[in-house]
């Protein structure tokens, strides 16, 4: 296709491209509007490709911009463009890959990959052969341009390239790339490695065939002069460690030596190399291969943890007092609310039972709570929160300490002595970070040194350097468990006193680190903090007046954690009068659409649960606003579904957080919530939320339904026929937390409905039995399922008992691990009822029942009698001789426990 532009059209487009480089917002907006209008002309895109590839009289930034606008057009409107135009663009892009300008070559490469992604590589069959042929060109620009495009394609379409749909082009491409490892141009060597690196993690067959050649070629380039080449060599070796350890093993010593040198490079290669230690720590052979190198590696990692000069400039390390400077909004990371999940407390070995097992904390949505990376929080600064050498070195030291445990210390302790007490604050800071990094792995070996180190760290909390104060907060939080286990006067009291002072530090980074560290201390100390509550609240409330936006959000978290940790001990008039006014003032000042409501509502939820009736004076406005937030979100959702173009979709987190706060209110106020419920349309709202398309909304609504069932069942009762089918429908373990909360709510409802649960048994029992027998079901869900099945058996034994054989073994295994509590009690009563109705059902798995009965510490008197009766009944039924043979299978501990508890 030959196409020529009209001169007027061309000059109009050039003018636009020039204007769009203006910094003036008004001009930018006008250009944007004009570009959208031009999109209605089919050959607008021809002009754009013409400017990029043919208009050499224009400056490069203008030509490149033309290509980037074209890229966006293809991304958005690609499917509507005429085939002839797309063909023209394809042919021009391939030509432009040999342009003398690197910027134009790169832009053409981006365009090619966009077309390939949008239309699918199978619809451009000549692309890969053409690019591979271009690699052999004598013209350097053509070879380099083609490699740039291939690298992007390998990155975006690694899986497709290995598919039979394309005839597995990698079989040709990988040997081809390997030839270029010895090319004279560093840029091309680097591209060749980067292309192959894309296929390591998936163990792509076409690469595995050539794996030895690839590894040899990597070794050959390991001491290349070019930084990018060395970086890609390190990256390749780190991935191979995960995937083809067998092939690296014979060379492991020299690879370790090499990575030791690279980790000390003054450029970004050091970060790529440092990843090697993190990956090696996960391999079983780590200890064996790394032991001889530890004395050299550990100092390198500790040196890597030192702030560089540039870090200190970015972190404004010389600015000590910045508390008066308002936060920039862009520095505040978006917060994600984690919906409530109903969990059980594990049984405490040795039989101490405490409180109700119904902990519904703000936990992860996938029930296996994700661990936040502590090194990501360490320097929580928007400019430095990217993964860097300091964080990677600290994380590597941490994981290696977990591998080597106390064997790490002979090497590390001399280094710590030298760094921790160093004159230079930057070195001292890195020593404090190292001490925190090894806390988990080397705790046992560190214990003898802590009586000297903890007081020293407490002194460092008032160091004149803010960056030393902030890292000290973090490191102390890593030893909080030990501090709490010692006599309070020795360490806990002085630590608390200093940490509270740091919460009121004049430096914002220190405030943040102190607040986070204090939250960790609260979780470890729990009710041990009760004697100091007044003192703690004084500080936290004072911080309200002092904090800028970002730290205020972390303060909410520290207050919520305090409420979770001390529970009802917070319910004292003097504490309530200190804590509630500032919280309610913030609550009144925030608009309904302000996302700061999330952390504040989470905090209030914990406070309401802890204060019980103490929250009553504040409950009405809080309750009403939650109802209003749910109503508003549902209305917006409806509007955006019925007329999508006119109304934006709502942020459903507002509704989720409101549902969770209502759960906290229901749990805290218990029957006192009745009057609020009766004068609102909460049941209608709940009915809608329970059917929402978003799993987290359903999860939180089922938690609330369970809590309202416990607190004021008279209001739930009239809606049971609507609610229970929805709960039954959500017994789908694909959404673990949703399924978990639905299961728990069914159990709570059955306890209140008693025999009226009967019509719903067929709807829920089958799915519950399926869940309890599924080997992939997580522990939390197993426990809640077992409790609910037990409760259904308690209220409708005749209906549930016939299925006993299908679940009794899994039921017993799941419930032996949880503490004595009301839920376990009602479930076991149900099991006893079912065994009475269908004794034959338990016979094949009776040993599991014996084990579950022995898991009780102090069952209530009548439950104890029921369990004893079943055990003795079984013994009589089978006769002394058979019983003796049966008991021989028991572990000695179990026989002993049964004899002591049930005299059998």
UniProtKB/TrEMBL annotation:
<dbReference type="InterPro" id="IPR001494">
    <property type="entry name" value="Importin-beta_N"/>
</dbReference>
<dbReference type="InterPro" id="IPR011989">
    <property type="entry name" value="ARM-like"/>
</dbReference>
<dbReference type="Pfam" id="PF03810">
    <property type="entry name" value="IBN_N"/>
</dbReference>
<dbReference type="Pfam" id="PF25780">
    <property type="entry name" value="TPR_IPO5"/>
</dbReference>
<keyword id="KW-0813">Transport</keyword>
<dbReference type="InterPro" id="IPR057672">
    <property type="entry name" value="TPR_IPO4/5"/>
</dbReference>
<feature type="domain" description="Importin N-terminal">
    <location>
        <begin position="31"/>
        <end position="99"/>
    </location>
</feature>
<keyword id="KW-0539">Nucleus</keyword>
<keyword id="KW-0653">Protein transport</keyword>
<dbReference type="GO" id="GO:0031267">
    <property type="term" value="F:small GTPase binding"/>
</dbReference>
<keyword id="KW-0963">Cytoplasm</keyword>
<dbReference type="Pfam" id="PF25574">
    <property type="entry name" value="TPR_IMB1"/>
</dbReference>
<dbReference type="InterPro" id="IPR058584">
    <property type="entry name" value="IMB1_TNPO1-like_TPR"/>
</dbReference>
<dbReference type="GO" id="GO:0006606">
    <property type="term" value="P:protein import into nucleus"/>
</dbReference>
<keyword id="KW-0677">Repeat</keyword>
<protein>
    <recommendedName>
        <fullName>Importin N-terminal domain-containing protein</fullName>
    </recommendedName>
</protein>
<dbReference type="GO" id="GO:0005737">
    <property type="term" value="C:cytoplasm"/>
</dbReference>
<dbReference type="Pfam" id="PF13513">
    <property type="entry name" value="HEAT_EZ"/>
</dbReference>
<feature type="region of interest" description="Disordered">
    <location>
        <begin position="329"/>
        <end position="370"/>
    </location>
</feature>
<dbReference type="InterPro" id="IPR040122">
    <property type="entry name" value="Importin_beta"/>
</dbReference>
<dbReference type="InterPro" id="IPR016024">
    <property type="entry name" value="ARM-type_fold"/>
</dbReference>
